[in-house]
Specification:
The complex is a heterodimer of chains A (224) and B (532). Chain A has ten helices and five strands, in the order ββαβββααααααααα. With 224 residues, chain A is of the alpha+beta class. Chain A has a five-stranded mixed beta sheet, with helices on one face. The chains are: A alpha+beta (224), B alpha/beta (532).
Amino acid sequence: MENKVNVFFFGKRYEVPAELTIMTAMEYAGYTLKRGCGCRHGFCGACATIYRIKGQNELKTCLACQTQVQEGMYVASIPFFPTDKRTYDINDIKPNQQIMMELYPEIYSCIGCNACTKACTQDLDVMQYIAHAQRGEFEKCAELSFDCVGCGCCSVRCPAGISHPMVGVLARRLTGKYIAPETEHLKNRVAEINHGEYDELIEQIMQKPITEMKELYNNREIEK
Amino acid sequence: MFTESMLESIKKVEATRAERMKTEPRRMTAEEKQALLEQYHPDYRQEGFAEIKIGPNKGEKAPVELTGLLHSNSRLLNENIDLSKVDYDVDVLVIGGGGAGSSAAIEAHEAGANVMIVTKLRIGDANTMMAEGGIQAADKENDSPVQHYLDAFGGGHFAARPELLKRLVMEAPDAIRWLNDLGVMFDKDADGRMVTTHGGGTSRKRMHACKDYSGAEIMRTLRDEVINRKIPVVEFTSAVELIKDDKGQVAGAVLLNMETDDFLVAKAKTVIIATGGAGRLHYQNFPTSNHYGATADGLVLGYRAGAPLLYQDTIQYHPTGVAYPSQIFGALVTEKVRSLGAMLVNKDGEAYAHPLETRDVSASAIIRECANGKGVDTPLGSGVWLDTPMIEILGGEGTIEKRIPAMLRMYMNYGIDMRKQPILVYPTLHYQNGGLEIGGEGYTKAIPNLLVAGEAVGGIHGRNRLMGNSLLDIIVFGRNAGKAAARKAKETTLGAMNLDHVQAYAKELEAAGLATDSVSPMLLPQYARHER
């Protein structure tokens, strides 16, 4: 007999195999998921979920696809949360402190409760990356927020109404575009291609008979 | 946590590690590879395929599950859709909100077109988001687009369409530049040089990455840009059929609101199919690394409207899917784990093959080891070891956390520390090498104003795809499709809209003795268990 546990989806009890994730347990219980299910492998943040173990006080957040069921788990999914993304033209803005004040002024209302960090399904130091954003330290904000999947659990718990994932995206785009050093070899190669320096060579290789291509491929030198 | 017998096997892996690390395993010869593929690659299992009986690829083979969808009727066969009631009227309709669709929409918008994205789930719920390892581009001094061409052409068994592969490699550096300018944070050193590694089958280190969130970093940047541009994105709405006109052009699509089951009509001067892959069809019962919506919808829509497929009989099984624990069975373990030095090792501690053979070869070798009793038994089958502690020895302590944090996190959830213990892997259904046939400009050959981009395209990679060439193709061909569609929309005049091809297809099915009640596209996999 396989090991089973009792879980409660939206308050209703189901007996499910203990090795399942919350997501597969819902499907085992008969749910056909439309919302609250995306990549199923922990990268897209579609399956933000909130739960409490019966008899315990603490309210926990997780990704349904990455979390195994437990006995007495009371589960509610948060398939959508109205995070507030501000729009901007990435070519017009600059990586200065001013831009955060303009686009996401509410980050300065952070009361330091750290609920965002506790809620993070990726174990990121969310409050700290918001602190970096406040100070215009975009590179640090980008680094600390890099693994964010945008599930929004932090925003759900925030008393200041901050849309943390959106702040992270802005910091990363500013870092990637303006702060990270320019790549000379990339610039050069794009220019060479645009000047037609590979046109003849690529046409030549495209015309080669398959036998010659096999010869070239099987004997090509591989960089160590 | 590993079982007792797994821990026993780990001891053998540890015992051979020092010796193994002294030599690089030999790469197979062309003949050895071919023999291995024929014996063990799932594409060679005849029972996994069935003949397509109608349509442009009649007489050719496709996976049984895909053939089933092609042999199904339209969801609209018995619906009376009033095409005169138009809900959306645009220049460019992009079906699919992944990397290809988003790139296409951005470029179409940049070109001044009125463009809209319709997507079955949310924008970004796509295989792009899950691509971990990286994106190829020949942008370093010792490399060239020609070398990239050779690697990809050989890796794809000399079957790629030259005009498509040329675009892929020649436009790769500009794709990286475009992403960089949008703010994608590539791994760079202090001087701005890209940190690049090998992928299976590459002859130069041209794999650019954003840790092991490469696709996620690209996708969330593209999504942010789409929203900044205020491009309309209609989510939880799938395209269920293309609309055609009396000139043989495509004229839009009938949409289905996934939540209310209401049909909607989108009229468009050009349509881009960017619906992605098919992993959720679980060919030959393989688990998949794909997202929930990967059900080949675009292939079905295009095919029913008359667009031919190419290489629909070749599927990529990623060598390293999770074999254990069962909660993450089939999830992707990025090839970057091997790029960083981890070897593939069987249960006796033997490095039975070079870790960076092409994916089809590498997957076949794992299947061979397991078939010959050299695999480690797991609750859901078997697997071989990927010797991840080697990465920390080779790159120094902390390399795993810095370069592949997603992998570390995924395993830590289940009490496995890949820095200290190896992990168990087995091939997982990863990518459809084939898809709708296009020309260099992105147009289907049968319908003049229908374009395809991304994984729904067939022919860019041939019969096997190299790591890092898919993230690349969605950007290159997505951008091109967006630009081309915007241009084409200016010169396109639509005739009277109709769904005649739906009836014609049903008649063809009937004439072939395939009268059926089943419908396609599938839209979502059927995972719900019902006791009655």
